[in-house]
Structure prediction request, 479 residues.
Amino acid sequence: MADSPVLVDFSEASIEFSNQYQLVDVDWKIKATEAWLLLGSNGSGKSALISAMVGEGRLLSGQRVSFKGQTATVSLLAQQTLIERERLRDDSDLTDQVFQGTPLVSLLNEDEPDPVRLEELVKLFGMEALLASGFRKLSTGETRKALLIKALASPAPLLMLDEPFVGLDTAASRMLMAELERIGKHKTIVLVMNHLPSVPAFITHYGYLEGGRLLFQGALKDAMVGELLKRLNHLHKADIELPVSTGPELLAELDPNLPLVTLRNAKVQYADKIIFEDLDWQINQGEHWQLTGPNGSGKTTLLALITGDNPQCYQNDLFLFGYQRGRGESIWDIKRHIGYVSSALQWDYRVSISAENVILSGFFDSIGLYVKASDQHRVIAHQWLGILGMEDRWQSPLNQFSYGDQRLLLIARAMVKRPSLLILDEPCVGLDSLNRQLVLSLIEIICQSGHTTVVYVNHHAEDAIPSIRFTLDLTEQSL
Prediction:
Protein backbone atom coordinates (compact mmCIF):
# COMPACT_ATOMS: atom_id res chain seq x y z
CA MET A 1 0.00 0.00 0.00
CA ALA A 2 1.48 3.30 -1.13
CA ASP A 3 0.33 5.22 1.95
CA SER A 4 1.55 2.65 4.46
CA PRO A 5 4.44 3.75 6.69
CA VAL A 6 7.92 2.46 5.90
CA LEU A 7 9.16 0.23 8.75
CA VAL A 8 12.60 -0.73 7.38
CA ASP A 9 14.66 1.16 4.78
CA PHE A 10 18.05 0.06 3.44
CA SER A 11 19.85 2.13 0.82
CA GLU A 12 23.03 0.59 -0.65
CA ALA A 13 23.69 -0.77 2.83
CA SER A 14 26.71 -3.02 3.37
CA ILE A 15 26.57 -4.67 6.80
CA GLU A 16 29.25 -6.80 8.45
CA PHE A 17 28.40 -9.71 10.76
CA SER A 18 31.87 -11.24 10.94
CA ASN A 19 35.23 -10.84 9.30
CA GLN A 20 34.15 -13.34 6.66
CA TYR A 21 30.48 -12.53 6.11
CA GLN A 22 28.71 -9.39 4.90
CA LEU A 23 25.50 -8.18 3.33
CA VAL A 24 26.48 -6.11 0.30
CA ASP A 25 24.76 -3.03 -1.21
CA VAL A 26 21.28 -3.94 -0.06
CA ASP A 27 18.40 -1.74 -1.23
CA TRP A 28 15.20 -2.78 0.53
CA LYS A 29 12.08 -1.20 1.97
CA ILE A 30 9.37 -2.87 4.04
CA LYS A 31 6.02 -1.17 4.59
CA ALA A 32 3.43 -1.90 7.24
CA THR A 33 1.21 -4.97 6.58
CA GLU A 34 3.41 -6.24 3.74
CA ALA A 35 4.27 -9.94 3.88
CA TRP A 36 7.71 -10.77 2.48
CA LEU A 37 9.10 -14.14 1.43
CA LEU A 38 12.91 -14.30 1.44
CA LEU A 39 14.41 -17.11 -0.62
CA GLY A 40 17.95 -18.27 -1.30
CA SER A 41 20.37 -21.12 -0.72
CA ASN A 42 22.12 -21.89 2.56
CA GLY A 43 24.55 -19.12 3.43
CA SER A 44 22.98 -16.66 0.99
CA GLY A 45 22.25 -14.08 3.70
CA LYS A 46 18.53 -14.56 4.43
CA SER A 47 18.90 -14.91 8.19
CA ALA A 48 21.48 -12.12 8.25
CA LEU A 49 19.04 -9.80 6.46
CA ILE A 50 16.28 -10.25 9.02
CA SER A 51 18.85 -9.70 11.78
CA ALA A 52 19.93 -6.48 10.07
CA MET A 53 16.28 -5.36 10.03
CA VAL A 54 16.39 -4.91 13.79
CA GLY A 55 19.82 -3.25 13.90
CA GLU A 56 22.19 -6.18 14.24
CA GLY A 57 25.49 -6.13 12.36
CA ARG A 58 27.88 -3.23 11.76
CA LEU A 59 26.95 -0.78 9.01
CA LEU A 60 29.98 -0.34 6.75
CA SER A 61 28.48 1.92 4.09
CA GLY A 62 25.15 3.18 2.80
CA GLN A 63 22.15 3.92 4.98
CA ARG A 64 19.94 1.78 7.18
CA VAL A 65 16.74 2.62 9.01
CA SER A 66 16.05 -0.35 11.27
CA PHE A 67 12.75 -1.30 12.82
CA LYS A 68 12.54 0.26 16.29
CA GLY A 69 9.40 -1.36 17.66
CA GLN A 70 8.64 -4.71 19.28
CA THR A 71 9.24 -7.83 17.18
CA ALA A 72 8.30 -11.48 17.53
CA THR A 73 10.81 -14.00 16.16
CA VAL A 74 10.62 -17.69 15.36
CA SER A 75 13.83 -19.38 14.24
CA LEU A 76 16.11 -22.29 14.99
CA LEU A 77 18.47 -19.79 16.63
CA ALA A 78 15.69 -18.43 18.87
CA GLN A 79 14.74 -21.99 19.83
CA GLN A 80 18.35 -22.83 20.63
CA THR A 81 18.69 -19.59 22.64
CA LEU A 82 15.72 -20.58 24.83
CA ILE A 83 17.19 -24.04 25.37
CA GLU A 84 20.55 -22.50 26.29
CA ARG A 85 18.85 -20.04 28.66
CA GLU A 86 17.17 -22.93 30.46
CA ARG A 87 20.47 -24.79 30.64
CA LEU A 88 22.13 -21.78 32.29
CA ARG A 89 19.28 -21.53 34.81
CA ASP A 90 19.80 -25.13 35.83
CA ASP A 91 21.49 -25.04 39.25
CA SER A 92 20.78 -28.68 40.07
CA ASP A 93 24.50 -29.40 40.44
CA LEU A 94 24.55 -26.96 43.37
CA THR A 95 21.19 -27.70 44.99
CA ASP A 96 20.69 -31.43 44.27
CA GLN A 97 17.19 -30.45 43.15
CA VAL A 98 16.00 -31.68 39.75
CA PHE A 99 15.47 -28.59 37.59
CA GLN A 100 12.22 -28.91 35.66
CA GLY A 101 12.70 -25.69 33.73
CA THR A 102 10.58 -22.56 33.42
CA PRO A 103 6.89 -23.57 33.32
CA LEU A 104 5.50 -23.31 29.81
CA VAL A 105 2.70 -21.01 30.95
CA SER A 106 5.27 -18.53 32.33
CA LEU A 107 7.30 -18.57 29.13
CA LEU A 108 4.21 -17.95 26.97
CA ASN A 109 3.23 -14.92 29.06
CA GLU A 110 6.64 -13.21 28.98
CA ASP A 111 5.63 -10.73 26.24
CA GLU A 112 2.26 -9.84 27.85
CA PRO A 113 0.11 -11.34 25.09
CA ASP A 114 -3.63 -10.96 24.69
CA PRO A 115 -4.84 -13.66 27.14
CA VAL A 116 -7.81 -14.62 24.96
CA ARG A 117 -5.61 -14.98 21.89
CA LEU A 118 -3.04 -16.97 23.87
CA GLU A 119 -5.70 -19.37 25.14
CA GLU A 120 -6.98 -19.89 21.58
CA LEU A 121 -3.52 -20.72 20.26
CA VAL A 122 -2.68 -23.08 23.12
CA LYS A 123 -5.85 -25.05 22.38
CA LEU A 124 -5.29 -24.90 18.64
CA PHE A 125 -1.82 -26.45 18.93
CA GLY A 126 -2.95 -28.96 21.58
CA MET A 127 -0.63 -27.71 24.33
CA GLU A 128 -3.16 -27.30 27.20
CA ALA A 129 -1.94 -30.35 29.11
CA LEU A 130 1.66 -29.10 29.01
CA LEU A 131 1.16 -25.60 30.46
CA ALA A 132 2.47 -26.61 33.90
CA SER A 133 5.38 -28.60 32.42
CA GLY A 134 8.91 -27.27 32.56
CA PHE A 135 10.25 -26.08 29.21
CA ARG A 136 13.13 -28.56 29.36
CA LYS A 137 10.67 -31.46 29.66
CA LEU A 138 9.15 -30.70 26.25
CA SER A 139 10.08 -32.60 23.12
CA THR A 140 11.83 -30.82 20.25
CA GLY A 141 8.52 -30.49 18.37
CA GLU A 142 6.74 -29.20 21.47
CA THR A 143 9.39 -26.52 22.09
CA ARG A 144 8.91 -25.42 18.49
CA LYS A 145 5.15 -25.14 19.01
CA ALA A 146 5.73 -23.16 22.21
CA LEU A 147 7.92 -20.66 20.33
CA LEU A 148 5.26 -20.31 17.62
CA ILE A 149 2.44 -19.76 20.11
CA LYS A 150 4.54 -17.15 21.92
CA ALA A 151 5.19 -15.26 18.66
CA LEU A 152 1.65 -15.53 17.25
CA ALA A 153 0.14 -14.28 20.52
CA SER A 154 2.62 -11.40 20.84
CA PRO A 155 1.31 -7.82 20.40
CA ALA A 156 4.39 -7.08 18.25
CA PRO A 157 3.48 -5.52 14.87
CA LEU A 158 6.42 -7.23 13.09
CA LEU A 159 6.68 -11.01 12.92
CA MET A 160 9.98 -12.53 11.67
CA LEU A 161 9.79 -16.22 10.83
CA ASP A 162 12.97 -18.07 9.87
CA GLU A 163 11.96 -21.58 8.74
CA PRO A 164 8.88 -21.67 11.04
CA PHE A 165 7.63 -25.04 9.72
CA VAL A 166 10.81 -26.87 10.73
CA GLY A 167 10.07 -29.83 13.02
CA LEU A 168 6.28 -29.53 12.78
CA ASP A 169 4.06 -32.44 11.84
CA THR A 170 1.58 -32.05 8.98
CA ALA A 171 -1.38 -31.00 11.15
CA ALA A 172 0.62 -28.34 12.99
CA SER A 173 2.00 -27.02 9.70
CA ARG A 174 -1.52 -26.56 8.31
CA MET A 175 -2.64 -24.73 11.45
CA LEU A 176 0.37 -22.43 11.33
CA MET A 177 -0.27 -21.54 7.69
CA ALA A 178 -3.91 -20.68 8.49
CA GLU A 179 -2.85 -18.51 11.43
CA LEU A 180 -0.30 -16.62 9.32
CA GLU A 181 -2.94 -15.88 6.70
CA ARG A 182 -5.11 -14.48 9.48
CA ILE A 183 -2.34 -12.42 11.07
CA GLY A 184 -1.09 -11.13 7.72
CA LYS A 185 -4.16 -8.93 7.38
CA HIS A 186 -3.01 -6.62 10.19
CA LYS A 187 0.69 -7.36 10.84
CA THR A 188 3.92 -7.18 8.88
CA ILE A 189 5.48 -10.58 8.21
CA VAL A 190 8.92 -11.55 6.95
CA LEU A 191 9.12 -15.26 6.14
CA VAL A 192 12.45 -16.99 5.42
CA MET A 193 12.29 -20.40 3.75
CA ASN A 194 14.76 -22.71 2.05
CA HIS A 195 12.50 -25.49 0.80
CA LEU A 196 9.39 -24.08 -0.86
CA PRO A 197 6.78 -26.48 -2.25
CA SER A 198 4.40 -23.56 -2.90
CA VAL A 199 4.04 -19.83 -2.23
CA PRO A 200 1.86 -19.12 0.85
CA ALA A 201 -1.33 -17.25 -0.03
CA PHE A 202 -0.66 -14.36 2.36
CA ILE A 203 2.68 -13.36 0.76
CA THR A 204 2.66 -9.98 -1.01
CA HIS A 205 6.37 -9.51 -1.84
CA TYR A 206 9.46 -11.66 -2.36
CA GLY A 207 13.23 -11.31 -2.35
CA TYR A 208 16.00 -13.64 -3.50
CA LEU A 209 19.52 -13.56 -2.05
CA GLU A 210 22.85 -14.99 -3.15
CA GLY A 211 26.25 -14.30 -1.63
CA GLY A 212 24.95 -11.63 0.74
CA ARG A 213 23.27 -9.68 -2.07
CA LEU A 214 19.56 -9.12 -2.55
CA LEU A 215 19.51 -9.97 -6.24
CA PHE A 216 15.78 -9.92 -6.96
CA GLN A 217 12.81 -8.42 -5.15
CA GLY A 218 9.37 -7.12 -5.88
CA ALA A 219 5.64 -7.52 -5.52
CA LEU A 220 4.43 -11.07 -5.97
CA LYS A 221 3.82 -11.98 -9.62
CA ASP A 222 3.30 -15.53 -10.87
CA ALA A 223 5.86 -15.27 -13.68
CA MET A 224 8.59 -14.00 -11.39
CA VAL A 225 7.90 -16.51 -8.65
CA GLY A 226 7.65 -19.34 -11.19
CA GLU A 227 11.15 -18.62 -12.44
CA LEU A 228 12.43 -18.32 -8.87
CA LEU A 229 10.90 -21.62 -7.84
CA LYS A 230 12.38 -23.26 -10.94
CA ARG A 231 15.86 -22.22 -9.76
CA LEU A 232 15.33 -23.16 -6.14
CA ASN A 233 13.61 -26.48 -6.71
CA HIS A 234 15.83 -27.65 -9.54
CA LEU A 235 16.70 -31.26 -8.80
CA HIS A 236 20.39 -31.95 -8.49
CA LYS A 237 21.13 -35.36 -9.96
CA ALA A 238 24.63 -36.76 -9.83
CA ASP A 239 26.36 -40.13 -9.62
CA ILE A 240 27.70 -40.22 -6.09
CA GLU A 241 29.98 -42.91 -4.75
CA LEU A 242 30.26 -43.06 -0.99
CA PRO A 243 33.81 -43.09 0.41
CA VAL A 244 34.93 -46.46 1.74
CA SER A 245 37.33 -46.77 4.64
CA THR A 246 40.07 -49.37 4.38
CA GLY A 247 41.68 -48.68 7.75
CA PRO A 248 41.36 -50.44 11.12
CA GLU A 249 38.30 -48.33 11.99
CA LEU A 250 36.24 -50.24 9.41
CA LEU A 251 33.75 -52.24 11.47
CA ALA A 252 33.64 -56.03 11.29
CA GLU A 253 30.64 -57.35 9.42
CA LEU A 254 27.72 -58.43 11.59
CA ASP A 255 26.05 -61.81 11.23
CA PRO A 256 23.65 -61.18 8.32
CA ASN A 257 21.10 -63.55 9.86
CA LEU A 258 20.74 -61.48 13.03
CA PRO A 259 18.40 -58.47 13.29
CA LEU A 260 20.05 -55.15 14.07
CA VAL A 261 17.31 -54.22 16.55
CA THR A 262 14.68 -56.32 18.33
CA LEU A 263 12.32 -54.57 20.75
CA ARG A 264 9.54 -56.57 22.42
CA ASN A 265 6.56 -55.19 24.35
CA ALA A 266 8.44 -51.95 24.99
CA LYS A 267 7.21 -49.36 27.45
CA VAL A 268 8.55 -45.96 28.48
CA GLN A 269 6.88 -44.09 31.32
CA TYR A 270 7.76 -41.01 33.37
CA ALA A 271 5.80 -40.79 36.62
CA ASP A 272 2.17 -41.23 35.54
CA LYS A 273 2.77 -40.31 31.89
CA ILE A 274 3.13 -43.22 29.46
CA ILE A 275 5.09 -42.24 26.36
CA PHE A 276 4.36 -45.54 24.61
CA GLU A 277 3.68 -49.15 25.61
CA ASP A 278 3.19 -52.62 24.08
CA LEU A 279 5.53 -51.64 21.25
CA ASP A 280 7.19 -54.36 19.15
CA TRP A 281 9.76 -53.45 16.51
CA GLN A 282 12.37 -55.46 14.64
CA ILE A 283 14.85 -53.93 12.21
CA ASN A 284 16.50 -56.49 9.96
CA GLN A 285 19.64 -55.73 8.00
CA GLY A 286 18.73 -54.02 4.74
CA GLU A 287 15.17 -53.16 5.88
CA HIS A 288 14.99 -49.38 5.80
CA TRP A 289 12.37 -47.76 8.04
CA GLN A 290 10.54 -44.46 8.17
CA LEU A 291 9.49 -43.42 11.69
CA THR A 292 6.48 -41.12 11.86
CA GLY A 293 4.06 -39.68 14.39
CA PRO A 294 2.90 -36.31 15.73
CA ASN A 295 5.00 -34.12 17.99
CA GLY A 296 5.27 -35.68 21.45
CA SER A 297 4.39 -39.22 20.29
CA GLY A 298 7.73 -40.64 21.46
CA LYS A 299 9.87 -40.78 18.31
CA THR A 300 12.94 -39.24 19.95
CA THR A 301 12.42 -41.37 23.07
CA LEU A 302 12.29 -44.53 20.97
CA LEU A 303 15.49 -43.58 19.18
CA ALA A 304 17.16 -42.89 22.54
CA LEU A 305 16.36 -46.46 23.62
CA ILE A 306 18.29 -47.75 20.60
CA THR A 307 21.26 -45.43 21.03
CA GLY A 308 21.46 -46.13 24.78
CA ASP A 309 20.79 -42.51 25.73
CA ASN A 310 17.63 -43.38 27.68
CA PRO A 311 18.20 -45.40 30.89
CA GLN A 312 14.91 -47.23 30.41
CA CYS A 313 16.64 -49.24 27.67
CA TYR A 314 17.74 -51.55 30.52
CA GLN A 315 14.14 -52.04 31.66
CA ASN A 316 13.00 -53.27 28.25
CA ASP A 317 13.48 -56.47 26.27
CA LEU A 318 15.93 -55.02 23.77
CA PHE A 319 18.56 -56.69 21.54
CA LEU A 320 21.01 -54.55 19.55
CA PHE A 321 23.60 -55.93 17.13
CA GLY A 322 23.52 -59.31 18.86
CA TYR A 323 23.74 -57.91 22.40
CA GLN A 324 20.92 -57.96 24.95
CA ARG A 325 20.93 -54.66 26.81
CA GLY A 326 21.99 -55.01 30.43
CA ARG A 327 23.97 -58.25 29.92
CA GLY A 328 27.49 -56.88 30.18
CA GLU A 329 27.88 -55.00 26.88
CA SER A 330 29.38 -51.51 26.97
CA ILE A 331 27.70 -48.45 25.52
CA TRP A 332 30.52 -48.31 22.94
CA ASP A 333 29.76 -51.88 21.82
CA ILE A 334 26.42 -50.41 20.74
CA LYS A 335 27.33 -46.91 19.55
CA ARG A 336 30.18 -48.03 17.28
CA HIS A 337 27.58 -49.57 14.96
CA ILE A 338 25.36 -46.46 14.86
CA GLY A 339 25.54 -43.21 12.95
CA TYR A 340 23.17 -40.55 14.30
CA VAL A 341 22.10 -37.09 13.14
CA SER A 342 19.54 -34.85 14.85
CA SER A 343 18.86 -31.22 15.75
CA ALA A 344 19.82 -32.00 19.36
CA LEU A 345 23.24 -33.26 18.24
CA GLN A 346 23.71 -30.09 16.21
CA TRP A 347 22.88 -27.91 19.22
CA ASP A 348 25.29 -29.93 21.40
CA TYR A 349 28.07 -29.60 18.81
CA ARG A 350 29.16 -26.17 20.09
CA VAL A 351 32.91 -26.65 19.80
CA SER A 352 34.53 -24.39 17.21
CA ILE A 353 36.48 -26.73 14.96
CA SER A 354 36.99 -26.89 11.22
CA ALA A 355 34.68 -28.59 8.75
CA GLU A 356 37.36 -31.21 8.12
CA ASN A 357 37.65 -31.98 11.83
CA VAL A 358 33.88 -32.23 12.23
CA ILE A 359 33.87 -35.09 9.73
CA LEU A 360 37.04 -36.63 11.18
CA SER A 361 35.46 -36.70 14.66
CA GLY A 362 33.05 -39.33 13.34
CA PHE A 363 35.91 -41.85 13.26
CA PHE A 364 36.26 -41.44 17.04
CA ASP A 365 32.60 -40.91 18.06
CA SER A 366 33.52 -37.62 19.73
CA ILE A 367 32.10 -34.10 19.73
CA GLY A 368 35.28 -32.33 18.74
CA LEU A 369 38.55 -33.91 17.60
CA TYR A 370 41.00 -34.94 20.34
CA VAL A 371 42.94 -37.71 18.54
CA LYS A 372 45.37 -37.28 15.67
CA ALA A 373 43.73 -38.41 12.45
CA SER A 374 45.63 -40.51 9.94
CA ASP A 375 46.30 -39.55 6.33
CA GLN A 376 43.70 -42.12 5.24
CA HIS A 377 41.15 -40.51 7.58
CA ARG A 378 41.80 -37.15 5.98
CA VAL A 379 41.47 -38.52 2.45
CA ILE A 380 38.02 -39.88 3.31
CA ALA A 381 37.00 -36.64 5.04
CA HIS A 382 37.94 -34.66 1.94
CA GLN A 383 36.01 -37.08 -0.26
CA TRP A 384 32.93 -36.26 1.81
CA LEU A 385 33.67 -32.54 1.62
CA GLY A 386 33.80 -32.91 -2.15
CA ILE A 387 30.42 -34.64 -2.21
CA LEU A 388 28.96 -31.79 -0.16
CA GLY A 389 30.54 -29.10 -2.33
CA MET A 390 32.53 -27.74 0.61
CA GLU A 391 36.08 -28.81 -0.19
CA ASP A 392 37.29 -25.21 -0.53
CA ARG A 393 35.95 -24.46 2.99
CA TRP A 394 37.60 -27.36 4.78
CA GLN A 395 39.45 -25.10 7.22
CA SER A 396 36.46 -22.87 8.04
CA PRO A 397 35.05 -23.18 11.61
CA LEU A 398 31.73 -24.95 12.00
CA ASN A 399 30.08 -21.87 13.54
CA GLN A 400 30.67 -19.94 10.30
CA PHE A 401 28.58 -22.40 8.29
CA SER A 402 24.85 -21.97 7.82
CA TYR A 403 22.47 -24.24 9.70
CA GLY A 404 21.88 -26.37 6.62
CA ASP A 405 25.57 -26.76 5.85
CA GLN A 406 26.22 -27.79 9.46
CA ARG A 407 23.58 -30.49 9.06
CA LEU A 408 25.28 -31.80 5.91
CA LEU A 409 28.62 -31.96 7.70
CA LEU A 410 27.08 -33.92 10.56
CA ILE A 411 25.55 -36.40 8.11
CA ALA A 412 29.02 -36.96 6.64
CA ARG A 413 30.37 -37.34 10.19
CA ALA A 414 27.74 -40.01 10.92
CA MET A 415 28.55 -41.97 7.74
CA VAL A 416 32.32 -41.77 7.79
CA LYS A 417 32.73 -45.25 9.35
CA ARG A 418 29.96 -46.82 7.25
CA PRO A 419 27.84 -47.75 10.30
CA SER A 420 25.50 -50.73 10.27
CA LEU A 421 22.59 -48.51 11.33
CA LEU A 422 22.14 -44.85 10.36
CA ILE A 423 19.50 -42.92 12.33
CA LEU A 424 18.40 -39.69 10.68
CA ASP A 425 16.07 -37.59 12.81
CA GLU A 426 14.48 -35.19 10.27
CA PRO A 427 17.69 -34.78 8.24
CA CYS A 428 16.21 -32.28 5.76
CA VAL A 429 15.38 -29.71 8.42
CA GLY A 430 16.88 -26.33 7.48
CA LEU A 431 18.15 -27.35 4.05
CA ASP A 432 17.63 -25.39 0.84
CA SER A 433 16.26 -27.17 -2.21
CA LEU A 434 19.62 -28.07 -3.75
CA ASN A 435 21.14 -29.43 -0.55
CA ARG A 436 17.84 -31.08 0.37
CA GLN A 437 17.82 -32.96 -2.92
CA LEU A 438 21.48 -33.86 -2.42
CA VAL A 439 20.72 -35.26 1.05
CA LEU A 440 17.70 -37.20 -0.23
CA SER A 441 19.84 -38.61 -3.03
CA LEU A 442 22.55 -39.56 -0.55
CA ILE A 443 20.05 -41.33 1.67
CA GLU A 444 18.77 -43.27 -1.33
CA ILE A 445 22.34 -44.25 -2.27
CA ILE A 446 23.03 -45.29 1.33
CA CYS A 447 19.89 -47.42 1.30
CA GLN A 448 20.95 -49.09 -1.95
CA SER A 449 24.56 -49.62 -0.89
CA GLY A 450 23.68 -52.87 0.88
CA HIS A 451 25.79 -52.03 3.93
CA THR A 452 24.00 -49.45 6.07
CA THR A 453 20.40 -49.80 7.23
CA VAL A 454 18.51 -46.51 7.61
CA VAL A 455 15.93 -45.34 10.16
CA TYR A 456 14.51 -42.06 8.89
CA VAL A 457 12.26 -39.71 10.87
CA ASN A 458 10.21 -37.62 8.48
CA HIS A 459 6.94 -35.65 8.56
CA HIS A 460 6.72 -34.62 4.92
CA ALA A 461 5.43 -36.77 2.05
CA GLU A 462 7.53 -34.86 -0.51
CA ASP A 463 10.70 -36.01 1.32
CA ALA A 464 9.92 -39.72 0.96
CA ILE A 465 12.84 -42.02 0.06
CA PRO A 466 12.04 -44.62 -2.64
CA SER A 467 14.06 -47.42 -1.00
CA ILE A 468 12.42 -46.97 2.40
CA ARG A 469 9.47 -49.37 2.30
CA PHE A 470 8.81 -50.01 6.00
CA THR A 471 7.00 -47.57 8.29
CA LEU A 472 6.51 -47.42 12.05
CA ASP A 473 3.78 -44.90 12.88
CA LEU A 474 3.58 -43.84 16.53
CA THR A 475 0.31 -41.94 16.03
CA GLU A 476 -1.77 -44.45 17.97
CA GLN A 477 0.80 -44.51 20.77
CA SER A 478 0.24 -40.77 21.31
CA LEU A 479 -3.56 -41.00 21.73
